[in-house]
Amino acid sequence: MPQNETVRSIQKRLFIILLRAFATVVSITLIIVLSTTLLTLAYSPQSPISNRLSITSRLETYYLLNGSWDGVEVLAEALMNDEFIKWQNTILLDSENRIVSENGQIIEDIRYYETEERSFTIPIEINNQTVGTLVLTSTDFPSRGFFAFAGLIPVFIVSIFLAILTTVTGLFLTRSVVTPLAEVIAAAQEVAKGKLDTRVNIKGPDDLQMLSDSFNQMAATLERSEQERREMLADIAHELRTPLTVLRGRLEGILDGIYTADEKHISPALASTYLLEHLVEDLRLLTMAETRQLQFDNKEVDLVALIRRTLEMFEPEAQEKQISLSLDHYIAEAVVTLDPQRTEQVIGNLLNNALRFVPNGGRIWINLQSAADQTTISINDNGPGVSATDLPFIFNRFWRKEKSRSRASGGTGLGLAISKQLVEAQGGSIEAGNNETGGLSIKILFRNP
User: Which pTM value belongs to this model?
Assistant: First the structure.
């Protein structure tokens, strides 16, 4: 899915979420306002508002004393200013709904009151008997429609405010969250399609920056793993091609009568099968070590005795090349909990690697040191060493110092990689560097029990 479509999809979902929140808040506000308005509109005449009009009590007293509404105009003389103003905005009705006074003036002729929409009536009762009605005209009390309209005004104001807030929030989230998140989603989709070189710009809030950075690291790891996989397949194909070519050439030559089926011509073919077997075994061992499927028989091992025993195994080859093998600086006893067979294999791989590169008459020596928390084995030689640019890669599969070396002189290219995995599987570490006087130095560090 292209990034623009992803952005639009997220924006749509975000808009729906904000719209739901907006509708919920407006609905709640509308319910509260309408409920309040309905309660106000349903206010009964016997409610406390009637008690707030002192005119009503004065009229009840007047009727109680006089028994009728005759001469009620004299009551106006006793009213205070604010009460007099209210009196002028009222209509007094008798028990038969005839107008007694209107806006403070006595009505001589007989007229009946017709209820107006915006009027508000307060019954005047004596001994639970209605003797009249005081009508408050529109100048004092707003109409029911006005109440309803006034109640809806806060809803409209809140709605406008929330609409603006929703728009601003949506724009802010789109810029700070949606766009960076959409980039990560689009990049993840590209990686899923096999474009492992895809990266995203690190921007947005802290959490999104961490997400983008983690994605870039993941993509880089996947790209590196894919590159290593392709290189490994190419290296395996290259390593298999040479012995298979020799094997095929010899066998075809024998079948075609070019070579005789004697030891001289069969031996190279047999040697090629040995090389193939060695390569396959190394690959199997390396794979099992990398996946931690190898079984280790850990026990207390005296490294001094183990190193001496390994040196004795390589002494004949060293003497043939006039190379000196020795255990130089060491302590009387260095006991570490390890698998003796795997540890001996590691030291043997490193010695074998050194013997291939150290020139005739050269020297290989091992130093053994022990501190309070770790023991260090260093295998040193006075060979040509390794350039600084190649040092980080010497523990990779199929790495060789000279790319043109044949398998006969360069080995399988897996010895150092296997050694690294065997050491790390036992909780140790291995590193390589060049000696100050020249030559390669590989150090193995094991933790003391």
Answer: 0.52
